[in-house]
Amino acid sequence: MKQVININFHGQVVPIEVSAFELLKDYTDSLSRYFANEEGKEEIINDIESRIGELFQERLKKGATCITDDDVNAIIKSMGRPEEFEDADDNSSKKSSNSQSAGAESSQAYTATPGASKRLYRTENDKVIGGVCGGLANYFGLDTTVVRIVFVIVALAFGTGLLAYLILWIAVPSSASTIIGGTRKKLFRDPDNKLIAGVCSGIGNYFGVNSWLPRILFLLPFLSFVFRWNDWGYMNFPNFINLSFSPGSLIVYIILWLVIPEATNTAEKLEMKGEKVDMNSIKNSIVGEMKGMQQRAEKFGQEAKTLAEEKGKMMGTEVKSAARRTGRSLGDIIVLLVKIFAYFIIGCVSFGLVVALFALAIFSIGIFPLKDFVLDNGWQSVFAWGALLFFIAVPVIGIITWIIRRLAKMKSNRRVLRFSFISLWIIGWFCMISLIASVSRDFRSGNNIVERDIALANPGTKKLELTTNSPDRKFYRNNWLRFEPFEGMEDDTAFVKNVEVKILKSPTDSFKVTMVKMANGRNRRYADTLANLIDFNVFQKDSLLVLDKGIAITRQNKFRNQRVIITVYVPVGKQIRIDRNVGWGHDVRFGNWDNGDFNINIDDEERGWDHDVDYMMKADGLYTLDGNPADEDDHRHPNRTRVRVNRNGIEINDGDDDIKVDENGVKINESQDGYRYDSSKPASVLDSMRLRLEQEKRRAKDSLRKVKEDAEKQLEKIGLNQTPVEPISQLQSYSLLVNID
Amino acid sequence: MNIDNTASQMRKGVLEFCILSVIKQGEAYPSDIIDKMREANLNILEGTLYPLLTRLKNAEFLTYRWIESNSGPPRKYFSLTEKGAAFYKELEATWNELANAVKALSEAEQEHTAEQENSTEQENINNNFNNP
Predict the structure, then answer these.
(1) Which residues of A137-170 are buried (b: 16+ CB within 10 A; e: fewer)?
(2) Which of A249-258, A591-600, B81-90 is least confident?
(3) Contact between A141 and A377 (Cβ < 8 Å)
(4) Under a CB-based contact definition with an 8 Å cutoff, are residues A495 and A552 in contact?
(5) How distant, in Å, are the alpha carbons of A102, A257, A268, B6 from that of A96?
(6) CA–CA separation, A127 vs B75, rounded Å?
(7) Digit-coded pLDDT (tens) for A142-169
C-alpha cells in the first residue's frame, strides 16, 4: 500500500507515489547542485524537467495509474545521474588531469574497506569524540588507549594536542564514508564559492552552515585589537591570539589550504555538499550501524573463544621453535634492535627540531611587536618580516602539512609545492642573515664614556637609601608572553631597566654620586648622541636617592644597548641601602658590552651588594651592620679568612685552620695537611706568623750563603799560591752553620 | 591512467561535433538527437546532452523554436545558425585532419611493432643458435 500524491510538474498534473516523489526530488536537487555555477542553469534544468514531464506523460498514456519508483528510476537512468554526466565545459577540461587523479583516488575510497587498505580513517566504531585517536591507533597498530593518553598529555602540556586533534578531525575522512556509501560527506575546498582558496566555504559545506560562519571565525583573531582595548580579566586572550596581526588563524588557514583537496570534478563536488539528510539516509546509516554492531558482537565472541585456544598452542610452538632457531634469530633480533634504536634516535632528533622550530616561532611572534624599537623602518623591517614569514613560518607550515599529508596518505603530486617551500625558505635565510648583519652594524661602536657628577642636595647625610620614583608601578601588561628586558611597552615607548649600581669608597667625608651613560650606534658620533638622549633622572630627597625606574626607548631613537651606571661613593663610617626596585638582574644587550673605554665586569653575584640590606662603609670595604663583609659568600670563597666577634668570643677561620678564643681559653685547630703557603691567598693570623718565621729563616740562610760565597771567592784568590788545608777547615765550620736548619 | 577515463576524454572532444552534425541534417528535438546517436552506436545521456545544447545555443551556434506537442509540454526544436554552420565546417576539417593523422600514426605504429617483433625473434633464434 502506497500513498499517491498529485504534483504539478511543468504545467501537467502528475499522480506520483510518495517514495517516487522523494526520489525525483533528490534527483532534481542533485541536478541543481551540479549545475549551480553553470551559466544557463535555469534553462538546462527546465529542459531536463520538461523532458522528464514528457516521459511521465508517456507512461500515463500507456495506462499507468501513477508514477512509481521504478518509473522514476528508469527515467533517472536514461537521463543519467550528475556523476555520470560527461562534462565538457572549459573549466573542467583545463583541470582534467588533476581531477582525474583525484577522481581515481576518491573512487578508491569508495571501494576500500577500512581494514584492508592502509589509509588513515577516523574510526566510527571506537570513538570518544571524533574517532581520531582510534583511527591513529588502527593505522599504526597501537592500542587506542595509548594514543588517547598521548593526546591528552600533549593537550595538557602544550595545548597543541587540541589543535592537532581538531585538524585531524577535519582532515581525516570518517570510516563511515566507506561503510555507508550514501551519506558520506567529504571536506573539499569549494572552488565555485571562494574568496581566497575556498577553505571556508568548503568547511561551511561540510558542516552544513553558511560559509560566512567559518569566515568570521577566521577573521575574528584579526579583529582582536578590539579585545586589547579592554581588560577582560581571566577571559583575556592569550598573547598568541591577542596580537593585532594574528598569525594563528592565518597559519591554520594556509595549512588547511594545503591539506584539503579542491573539489574539481562532479563526484567530488557532490561529495563536498553531501546528500541531503532525509529519512532514507538516516535509515541507511542506522541500519548500517546496527549491522556493524551485530558483526562486532559476533566477532568479539569468536575472538574470545579462539584466543584461549591460540594462546595455548602458540606458547608450545614458540618454545619449540625458539630453541631451534636461537642462532639465527639472535642476529635478527640484534638487527631489529639496532633498527629500532636508529629510528628512535632519528625520531627524537627530528621531533626536537620540530619542537625547537615551534618554540622559535612562538618566541619570535612574541617579540615581534618590539621590532620597532630596535629596527630601522626601512630594509631592516622588511628583512624582519621576511625572516618571520619565510624563515620560521614556512617550515612550520611545511612540516605540519607534510605530516598530515603523510598520515592521510595523500599523494604528494606537487613537486612544485616542495620547490616553492624550499625557495621561500632560502629567501627566509637571506632575510635572516641580512637582518643580523644589518643590526649588528647598527650596534658596532660605543660612545665616549663620560662620568658625570650628580649634584646632591645633602651630601653630608648619614645614610643614603637608593630607591625608584615609582616602585609599585608595573610596566608589563600580561603574564602570558613577557619579554623580560623590555619591562614595559607603551605605544611609543619601551622601558629598559639597564641600570647598574656600583658602591665605592669615597675619598672625602661626604657622599658623591656619578652617572655614566652608555649606548651603541652605527658610529661613535651617533652612539654619543644616543647616550646624551638618555633621560635618566637622579635626585636626592632627604636621605633618599631617587632613581628613574628604567630608560625610556622611543620608536625614533631605537634601542642601542642604552645603559646607565650609577656609582655611589660612600664615605667611611656612613651607611647605604639599595631598594629592591633598583637595578635589574638581567642586562638587555645585543652583542658585546665592552666598548674599550670602560670595562665593566659586574654580574649579579659579584656586584658586591644585595638588595634591601643596610651596609656600612669601613676603611677596608663595605660591611653589613653585623660586621660581615658585603661580598662574603661562603660557597664561593670557602678559604677566605673570616673573623667573627660576638658574645661567645672571637673566632678566626681561614677554611683550614681556626682559632677560637672563648671562656674555655684559646683553642687552635690545625688542618691535617700541616703547613702550606699560597701567596695568592690572604694570610690568616696563624699563617702570617708562620710566614714571618719562614721569611726570617730564609733571610738568615741567604746571608750565611752570601758570606760563604764571599769567603770562597777570597779563598780562590788566595788559594792560587797557598795550601788549601786551612781554609777547608774554615769552610767546614761555615757549612756547619749553614746546615743548622 | 585508466582506459575508461581516456575513452571518455576522447568522446568528450567529439561530442559537440557529433551533435552539430545531427542537427545539420535538419531541425531536431533532443530525444531525436539521442536516438540518432544511439543508432550510430554513440550512447549519450540526456543529462549530458541538455547542458551541451544550452552552451551551444548560448554561443549562438544553435537556435531553437517552440513546437506544440500533443504529448506533454511544448518541445524545443534546435537548428544551426550561420555561425554554427561555419563552426561546424571548422570542426569537420579539424576532425578529418585528426582522423587521418591518427590513422596514419597507428598504422605506422603497427608496422613498426611488427618489424620489431620480427627482428627480436630473429635475434632470439640467433642467440639460441650461437649459445646452444
Answers:
(1) bbbeeeebeebbeebeebeeeeeebebbbebbbb
(2) A591-600
(3) no
(4) yes
(5) 10, 20, 13, 11
(6) 55
(7) 777 778 787 777 766 666 667 777 777 7
Q: What is the pLDDT at residue A205?
A: 77
pLDDT at position A247: 55
End-to-end CA gap in chain B: 42
Best interface-test mutation with A: which of B3, B50, B62 has the largest number of A CBs within 10 A?
A: B50
Give the three cell numbers for residue A708. 760563604
Q: List pLDDT tens digits, range A563-586.
A: 888 888 888 888 888 877 665 444
pLDDT computed for residue B127 by the predictor: 55
Could you give the CA distance from residue A175 to residue A185 in angstroms, rounded to a whole number?
11
Higher-confidence residue: A546 or A364?
A546
Residues in A whose CB is inside 8 Å of some CB of B read 10-12, 31, 35, 38-40, 43-44, 47-48, 50-51, 53-54, 56-58, 61, 78-82, 84-89, 93, 96, 100, 103-104
For A580, which DSSP code? T
CB A588 within 8 A of CB A550: no
Q: What is the DSSP letter of A370?
A: G
Question: What is the DSSP-derived secondary structure letter of residue A388?
Answer: I
Out of B8, B44, B58, name the one closest to residue A40 (CB). B58
Check: CB of residue A518 under 8 Å from CB of residue A463. no
Q: How many helices (H) and strands (E) does chain A have?
A: 23, 21
- Residue A538 has phi, psi (to 5 degrees) of -135, 125
Sequence-ordered strand ranges (E) for A295-450: 445-446
Interface A-B: count of C-beta contacts within 8 A: 84
Q: What is the mean pLDDT of residues B33-53?
A: 85
Residue A122: is its pLDDT beyond 80?
no
- Contact assignment for B46 to A48 by CB distance below 8 Å: yes
As a whole number of angstroms, the distance between CA A85 and CA B47 comes to 6
Tell the residue number behind the cell numbers 495506462, with chain if given: A63
* A85 neighbourhood in chain B, CB within 8 Å: 45, 47-48, 51
CA distance A431 to A425: 10
Written as one letter, the residue type at A39 is: E
What is the structure's pLDDT at A565?
Answer: 83
Give residue A721's pLDDT band: very low, low, confident or very high (50, 70, 90): low
C-alpha–C-alpha distance, residues A356 and A1, integer Å: 69
DSSP secondary structure string for all residues of A131-155 = SHHHHHHHHHT--HHHHHHHHHHHH
ipTM score of the complex?
Answer: 0.71
pLDDT digits (tens, 9 = 90+) for A322-350: 555 555 566 777 888 888 888 888 888 88
Helices (H), A534-682: none
Q: Helices A41-61 and B46-58: crossing angle, nearest 10°?
A: 140
- Crossing angle of helices A69-79/A41-61, nearest 10°? 130
pLDDT at A60: 83
Q: Would you call B12 and A79 a contact, using CB atoms and an 8 Å cutoff?
A: no
Q: What is the CA radius of gyration of chain B?
A: 23
Q: Is B25 an 8 Å CB contact of chain A?
A: no
pLDDT at A83: 76
